Amino acid sequence: MTDDATLIVTELICHAVEDGRFSSIRVIVSRPAPGHVRVGVVHRSKATPVFGTDSDGDEPRGLGLLLVDALADRWGAESYRWGKQVWADLRERGAA
Which of the chain's ends, N or C, has fewer CB atoms near its CB within 10 Å? Predict the structure, then answer.
């Protein structure tokens, strides 16, 4: 789970840096249940996360979210008045 969580956090941070372009982001790691981990990145952008699209014609964007989708048990975005958190849940193999 550690390798998957590391890659997911890296991709979520990259997404936040590209999407938000604000001076700070926050990484959150929690254990909502035994054998489960939630990682999240909070930043001030309100834009909805987008899967692998070619947004400007030259550079593909959102490919990291495809990795997050493949590695996480589930993921999503939670909107706040001032921004959002993009999170991913992971479960240890064999955990209920």
Answer: C
Sign of the alpha-carbon dihedral angle for 36, 41, 44, 48: negative
**Domains detected in the chain:** 2-91 (3.30.565.10)
DSSP letter (8 states) at residue 21: -
- Element (H or E) spanning 86, and its range? strand 83-91
- Could you tell me which residues come within 8 angstroms of residue 36 by beta carbon, excluding any fewer than 6 positions away? 89, 90, 91, 92, 95
What helix, strand, coil percent values describe the chain, rounded to 5? 30, 35, 35
What's residue 96's pLDDT?
58
pLDDT digits (tens, 9 = 90+) for 47-75: 888 776 655 556 666 678 899 999 999 99
Query: pLDDT-derived band of residue 11, with 50, 70 and 90 as boundaries?
Result: very high
Beta-ladder partners of 28: 40
